[in-house]
Design a protein that fits this description.
- The protein is about 20% helix and about 40% strand.
- The protein has two helices and six strands, in the order βαββββαβ.
- It is globular, with a radius of gyration of 14 Å.
Length: about 110
């Protein structure tokens, strides 16, 4: 199993506002955007190869918690399943997406 990282938060912000924000993220390519079974949106994204990585597959799932709050879950996994070390790239991907997506919003950690 390859290396991975994830984070899950509750955001004070409506779903479609966050969807529009994520659609304009830089440095990641959106491969797919589909509805999920929770009334939200699932994004499949990628990050290209570098000197430290064979690339990463990133999943961002956002779904409504109530009328004003949205659950955001970001997971990043090495694209090469046999890659054991990621030199922090998966954690960095999750951090970069969360920082961009949640800038200026009220955020609470979730388990």
């Amino acid at each position: 199993m390859g290396a991975k990282a994830s984070d899950k938060v509750l955001v004070t912000g409506q779903l479609m506002y966050l969807v529009e924000r994520l659609r304009s993220v830089q440095g990641f390519n959106i491969k797919m955007e589909i509805p999920d079974d929770k009334g939200g949106v699932l994004f499949r994204m990628g990050h290209s190869m570098s000197w430290f990585s064979w690339g990463e597959n990133i999943t961002v799932n956002m779904y409504p918690y109530n009328n004003q709050q949205t659950v955001v879950e970001v997971k990043s996994e090495c694209a090469m399943p046999t890659q054991i070390f990621d030199w922090g790239q998966n954690k960095q991907n999750v951090s970069d997406i969360m920082k961009y997506l949640l800038y200026g919003l009220n955020v609470q950690k979730m388990q």
